[in-house]
Design a protein that fits this description.
The chain is about 30% helix and about 20% strand. It is α+β, with helices and mostly antiparallel strands. It has a domain at about 5-55 and about 130-260: 60s Ribosomal Protein L30, Chain: A, CATH 3.30.1330.
Length: about 270
């Protein structure tokens, strides 16, 4: 991996359901400062335009909330229709605070199962792409077929981190690079052998890209990361670990094993 690289924002029109996202990105990249897509480029694409193009938008007026959604909505000050969408996307609900449910979704702990009310039309909610890795594979294949360049694609989403203010992007889908590089066995500056360190390369690239993509009305849903020198490989996915092995979830499970079974009673507000 090189010690310097460039990041180019790719500004596009607003994405709609059914749009050919690879074509839109290719055209916009050619018109923008990146001057097109080159061999070795890593494309970071926000999850919202991917999910929108894939037709994932939900109209809330068409959602009938279940009794559980009504209960959780009242408890946490949330629209029960939105809660119903969140429940439909969740593997488990761990708990919540006002305005948010803490859920497990696609093997990851995150607020509201990744369902968003921003960057989607009024009166709608936008879940994550159903298969972010599959989305990354399809977009990568389309771009490589149309350009002849070997590229990687990361689907990124913004996440909060425990006891930190603000959000940063992480990779929820990846195709074309190794998402995590194992540094165990190397030595540090003082010769000690690393026994734990594994570099979350795709997450770090996603966080870098969001600095030019923004989170609001920038209309820059994609960034091209160029010059890192990472090998382009036919590898798919972002490795995860079991909840029991996670520092944050492991401690919580030790305190309350019922968390993952959905039968824990939420604390009253």
């Amino acid at each position: 991996m090189k010690t310097s690289f460039s990041v180019y924002g790719v500004k596009t029109p607003v994405i709609h359901a059914g749009d050919d996202l690879p074509s839109i990105i290719l055209h916009a990249a050619g018109e923008g400062p990146a001057g097109g897509i080159s061999n070795g480029d890593i494309l970071v694409i926000a999850e919202s335009p991917v999910a929108t193009a894939e037709g994932r938008t939900v109209t809330l007026d068409r959602v009938i909330p279940s009794p559980r959604a009504v209960e959780l909505g009242a408890r946490y000050g949330m629209d029960p229709r939105f809660v119903e969408v969140v429940l439909g996307e969740s593997e488990a609900v761990v708990g919540g605070v006002r305005g948010f449910l803490l859920t497990l979704q696609q093997g990851t702990l995150l607020p509201n199962a990744g369902v968003d009310l921003s960057n989607t039309p009024q009166g709608t909610a936008l879940p994550l792409p159903r298969d972010p890795n599959g989305s990354a594979v399809r977009i990568r294949r389309a771009i490589e077929e149309r350009t002849g360049a070997r590229v990687a694609v990361i689907i990124a989403d913004s996440r909060t981190h425990a006891m930190r203010l603000g959000c940063a992007s992480v990779a929820i889908g990846c195709a074309g690079i190794r998402a995590v590089i194992d540094e165990r066995g190397r030595t540090d500056l003082y010769g000690r052998v690393l026994t734990v360190t594994q570099r979350a390369v795709a997450d770090n690239i996603a966080s870098t890209a969001v600095l030019v993509m923004g989170e609001a009305d920038e209309s820059i849903p994609c960034a091209i990361v160029r010059g890192l020198g990472l090998p382009i490989v036919d590898e798919i996915g972002v490795p995860a670990i079991a909840a029991e092995e996670c520092l944050f979830m492991g401690v919580a499970l030790h305190a309350d094993p019922a968390i993952l079974h959905g039968d824990r009673k939420p604390e009253p507000l």
